[in-house]
Amino acid sequence: MYAFDIERPSTVSDAVKLLKESDENQPLSGGQTLIPTLKQRLAAPEKLISLTGIDEMKGICEDDDGRLCIGAATCHADVAAGAGKYPALAALARQIGDPAVRNRGTLGGSLANNDPSACYPSAVLGSGATVVTNSREIAADDYFQGMFATALEEGEIITEVKFPVPEKACYMKFEQPASRFALVGVFVAKYADGVRVAVTGASEEGVFRWTEAEEKLNSDFSSSALEGMSPPADNMISDLHGSGAYRAHLVGVMARRAVDAAH
Amino acid sequence: MAQVSMTVNGKPASGDIEGRTLLVDFLRDGLGLTGTHVGCDTSQCGACVVHVDGKAIKACTVFAAECEGSSVTTIEGIAAEDGTMSKVQDAFQTHHGLQCGFCTPGMVMSAEALLQENPTPSEAEIREYLEGNICRCTGYHNIVKAILAASGQDVSKIAAE
Ligand SMILES: Cc1cc2nc3c(=O)[nH]c(=O)nc-3n(C[C@H](O)[C@H](O)[C@H](O)COP(=O)(O)OP(=O)(O)OC[C@H]3O[C@@H](n4cnc5c(N)ncnc54)[C@H](O)[C@@H]3O)c2cc1C
Ligand code: FES
Ligand code: FES
Fold it and tell me: Are residues B59 and B114 in the same domain?
């Protein structure tokens, strides 16, 4: 690691102020992605602005519209234990990495990073959630902009995510056993105004909505409505863990399993 | 350089650190507590698991500065003052839950955390909880058996395959 300083502000506004001091300053949340990156010298911040001492960014509550609001610095273990109102989301958090990773890694860090194989992006996109930052609210459909790319601007901090709670939902993850990330993960959520299907781990473009499946499920919410379907393989990730065609096939399988298991 | 202070195994500890000083380096190099191992340094193997404020975390993937004011427990803090081993440690010995022993500090710290959360885990729950702890030697069988035994459960049903 190159040398840097760490600051631990206790409010969002202090954190934003510290970030604005230099383009070379960067937020640090659970560190479960950033610390390995720093060790590889793929990042060289001047200062890390730790978000872990900011109480207003932690915790789970419900807003007046019945949405589940989760602070961006809430760790995966706390979401697994505390998001009982949205069981599919709690179950997704419980499947991230291992217990020690879940005790540090956070929702905000996962979304800011937008790893193409990360779990949370599929829940946020699949729920049509709202990403709240220190300066604005961003709809999930506008937030994810391709592999490791998001709508966040320099110095902008995710503070909270608001999840509308569906009638039923399920996240099906086909785990890549070495990294424990998703080889393919499909999040299906059924709302009164329609079904959303979000896919992670598969596409070169990062998380995406499988709209063809959504249309079928809107008229018939059953796995048989998706029989034989899978998205086109052209844009799928091909690596030593699986070819693009294999991933495309898995998307269909995982989507059907998610529909069957949704509750 | 900055100062950091925390409680380690019940005793106050402080020292000079850089921003980039990892908790595991502060424990090993700063405090001489070399029981916490570094197996991979890439957040994969769990040899470095310690408890920070009661939660199992990978000490190679947290900065010492982030632990200011925290209460940290390492493998050195698990046995009683007089050296009497904890139930988990004792069961690892009785059931041969280790061979070379390199992964053992992390295994024990994860097992202690599991049993605090879930005092009578099933075999499947133990295996799931140990997903982030890698052992090159044992094949896990006796580790799982030791943890089942430490929780006071019958281990005959998972006796040698
Ligand atoms: C062994 C292992 C297994 C894992 N398995 C999985 C898995 O199965 N599924 C999965 O989804 N993930 C997995 N992860 C990743 C894990 O979930 C990370 O915790 C997460 O991706 C990043 O969150 P963090 O809080 O650790 O962020 P950090 O590492 O602290 O930060 C990540 C990036 O986000 C930025 N950032 C952090 N917080 C904010 C914020 N609030 N606003 C703006 N920018 C911010 C940082 O500057 C940095 O660029 C795994 C990690 C490890 C080490
Ligand atoms: S040394 Fe920390 S996880 Fe391997
Ligand atoms: S006993 Fe050798 S690595 Fe586990």
Answer: no
